[in-house]
Amino acid sequence: MVIKETEPASLCGVTIGEVVWCKLTTGNIGHGRIVLIHPKNKEGPAMTIFDEFSGAYRVSLISSITEGDKSKINKLAKARAKRAQKESKK
Q1: HSE-up of 57 (CA within 13 Å, CB side)?
Q2: Could you give the CA distance from residue 65 to residue 21 in angstroms, rounded to a whole number?
Q3: Fewer Cβ atoms within 10 A, N terminus or C terminus of the chain?
Q4: How many helices (H) and strands (E) does the chain have?
Q5: Is the pLDDT higher at 4 or at 58?
Q6: Rounded to 10 degrees, what is the CA torsion of 11, 72, 23, 66?
Q7: What is the pLDDT of residues 41-79, one digit of tens each?
Q8: Domains of the chain
Q9: pLDDT > 70? residue 32
Q10: What distance in Å separates the CA atoms of residue 51 and residue 20, rounded to the nearest whole number?
Q11: Residue-wise burial string across 18-33, b where 16 or more C-beta atoms lie within 10 A, e elsewhere
């Protein structure tokens, strides 16, 4: 992925490449690595993460970052195992 020079590498205390837990707009919890930061989002500064639960890119407000959710760690491990199993079948 090519990052444009106009996109900041860090904002509001978060940096591209950092792994975070956050609340998604769907109400679910997301966990993943920050791949883009969007400083001019109309709702407030936002970020794009690669969500490990869904295996897809998700956009969330930076203000929605939460502490690690211990109740979701088993679910995360299952999601990782399921994705690894799918990839090994290819």
Answers
A1: 8
A2: 6
A3: C
A4: 1, 7
A5: 58
A6: -50
A7: 889 888 999 998 888 999 999 899 888 766 677 777 777
A8: 10-89 (2.30.30.140)
A9: yes
A10: 10
A11: eebbbbbeeeebbbbe
Taking the CA atoms of the chain, what radius of gyration do you get in angstroms?
Answer: 14
Instruction: Please provide the DSSP assignment of 4-33 as one string.
Output: PTTS-SEETTEETT-EEEEE-TTS-EEEEE
Q: CA-based angle 60:28:67, to the nearest 5?
A: 70
- Determine contact, residues 65/45, Cβ cutoff 8 Å: no
13: its two tokens? 């205390």
- Note the residue count of the chain: 90
